[in-house]
Write a structure and sequence with these properties.
The complex is a heterodimer. By secondary structure, chain A is mostly helical. Chain A has helices at 2-23, 27-47, 51-72, 89-113, 122-128, 134-143, 147-168, 180-198. In chain B, 66% of the residues lie in helices and 2% in strands. The chains are: A mainly alpha, B mainly alpha. Chains A and B meet through α2, α3 and α5 of A and α1, α4, α5, α6 and α7 of B.
Chain lengths: 199, 341
């Protein structure tokens, strides 16, 4: 009973928040709604008993990914509305069509869903082995069946990290606050501005 | 749902809704009292260390200063700047306070006990999800949104600089918190606070095995709660008040309460994970021990505030990425090697 109520609360909240994300013209609303929606999605994981995945959803999406989006948004004025340009109506048409197709598949999913079986059901495992927590269950599957995808993902993250360091690492070995080259540039700018003002 | 119930209800008395509610009220009462009273204690201790008197005019020894401050905060005019985004501006302080208190839901404060006459079992933890540590860290990470949205919504340059600093500082030091606490997690082999506590019942405290992780966690905890060596977010001489520049009255008070609640959370995590938790010690019962430990870590934060000046932003980043993070990684690797061999 409680699960049903909680499920509908989370479902409605998620849908509304993500609709705000898509519909709103204000960056700040869109961003906060997206972050709130991510929190609501973690609610589904908790409902299904996957505490570990729920918390990972919180940490990764809410704590890290969205915070980085938000950080990027500090570089422009977030309180203004954005004027959207619709240059390509056929693309909108195509995306809308694809979306409705996706909805048909999603709503018909329960018909196929009866045949789907979990490969490593956690709840039954608990009955066999005592004290297997959520994290342990995820770990067992990750390091047996899905070892290669796991390692490949790790490799990709390593590549991304190295690329990030290289992209951001220019001029990393000296301090910007003590940089004399920048001081000189600023001096030159100040002089030229003064000259402009005098002229 | 089935599996959570199944996992948590092993070999314990029945945890009824009454027990959980009592626990929640207990945590809220204790934490709110400490957080409110903390401002008075902070001012008195700082005054003592700096050879001043501190608050002394309102009530005996200035004890009613707290009530006076509360009345002042509630009756102050609540100003919302003209060009601010009003909705986000209003909701940002609530996010800070709410995430700080939600994090406390998964933190154990007192041992299990049964109320004698009505026979209600009160668990040590309000919501014993078996990934408690991750939940608390995740909730504290979500607490970043309060300052972030506050800075972006208020349409003030100092505010946005302050919230940019907040974002950098929190995101960087979360890495250190996570990595430093990873080594004890590897030793205990669980993410549940209760297991951490039980692990230290008979043996030494975990701080004896993991001194480096403890120090790293404390430093990162100072940064995450915006305490003095790292209080760059609202440093008056540089960025007015940072992300709280445009806030007044009780909205400002909510940020303040959230910050104090986070200090307590860090204190609780430090005491449960590293300092033996709520186990009995010699002749002292567990509940007294945990209160003593939390109070000491609170005092420690005030002590550091009185003793040290704050660092520059570039020193802060240097400390995080070039000193603390490598140390934390080395600590994790060494712990792993020792466990394997």
């Amino acid at each position: 009973m409680y699960e049903f109520i909680a499920f509908y609360v989370f479902a409605i909240a998620t849908t509304i928040l993500f609709l705000i994300t898509v519909m709103s013209k204000n960056v700040l609303y869109a961003m906060s709604a997206l972050a709130g929606g991510m929190v609501m999605i973690s609610g589904f994981f908790f409902l299904l008993g996957a505490d570990f995945l729920g918390v990972v959803q919180l940490i990764v999406y809410v704590g890290a990914v969205m915070a980085l989006y938000a950080f990027a948004m500090m570089f422009f004025d977030a309180t203004k509305d954005i004027k959207e340009k619709h240059q390509n109506p056929s693309l909108v048409f195509l995306l809308g069509g694809l979306m409705s197709l996706l909805f048909v598949v999603m709503f018909s999913a329960p018909i196929i869903g009866d045949n789907v079986q979990a490969l490593y059901p956690v709840v039954e495992n608990v009955g066999v082995v005592e004290n297997v927590g959520n994290a342990q269950a995820v770990g067992m599957v990750l390091f047996t069946k899905y070892l290669i995808p796991f390692e490949v993902a790790a490799l990709m993250l390593l590549v991304a990290m190295i690329a990030g360091i290289i992209l951001a690492g220019k001029k990393m070995d000296y301090s910007l606050t003590k940089c004399e080259a920048i001081d000189e540039e600023m001096d030159i700018e100040a002089i030229t501005e003064n000259e402009k003002g005098e002229a | 749902m089935v599996s959570t119930l199944f996992l948590t209800a092993t070999a314990l008395p029945e945890v009824g809704p009454a027990g959980v509610i009592i626990k929640a009220v207990l945590i809220l009462a204790v934490i709110a009292a400490i957080a409110g009273f903390g401002t008075y204690i902070e001012r008195k201790i700082l005054a003592f260390m700096q050879r001043r008197l501190g608050p002394q005019h309102v009530g005996p020894f200035g004890l009613l200063q707290l009530a006076a401050d509360g009345i002042k905060l509630f009756t102050k005019e609540d100003i919302i700047p003209q060009h601010a985004n009003k909705f986000i501006f209003a909701i940002a302080p609530v996010i800070t306070a709410a995430t700080a208190f939600i994090a406390l839901a998964a933190v154990p404060v007192f041992p299990d006990f049964t109320i004698p006459f009505i026979d209600v079992f009160v668990p040590s933890i309000a919501a014993d999800i078996n990934v408690g540590i991750l939940f608390v860290l995740g909730m504290m990470a979500a607490g970043l949104y309060g300052p972030l949205l506050a800075g972006m919504a208020q349409g003030n340059k100092w505010g946005i600089i302050g919230s940019a600093r907040t974002a950098i500082q929190f995101l960087s030091y979360e890495v250190v918190t996570g990595l430093s606490i990873l080594a004890p997690i590897m030793m205990v082999g669980s993410l549940s606070f209760v297991n951490f506590n039980d692990y230290q019942t008979d043996g030494l405290w975990l701080v004896a095995y993991q001194p480096v992780a403890f120090v790293l966690f404390l430093i990162a905890g100072f940064a995450e709660t915006n305490r003095t060596p790292f209080d760059l977010l609202e440093h008056e001489a540089e960025v007015i008040s940072g992300y709280v520049t445009e806030y007044s009255g009780m909205r400002w008070g909510l940020f303040f309460i959230g910050e104090y609640a986070n200090m307590i959370t860090i204190g609780v995590i430090a005491s449960v994970v590293f300092l033996g938790g709520y186990n009995d010690f010699w002749i002292f019962p567990g509940w007294l021990m945990i209160i003593g430990k939390i109070a000491f870590s609170f005092f420690f934060m005030l002590w550091v505030r009185a003793a040290w000046p704050h660092v520059r932003p570039d020193q802060l980043m240097w400390l995080c990425w070039k000193v603390l993070m490598p140390l934390a990684v080395v600590n994790v690797v060494i712990t792993g090697l020792v466990i394997m061999l």
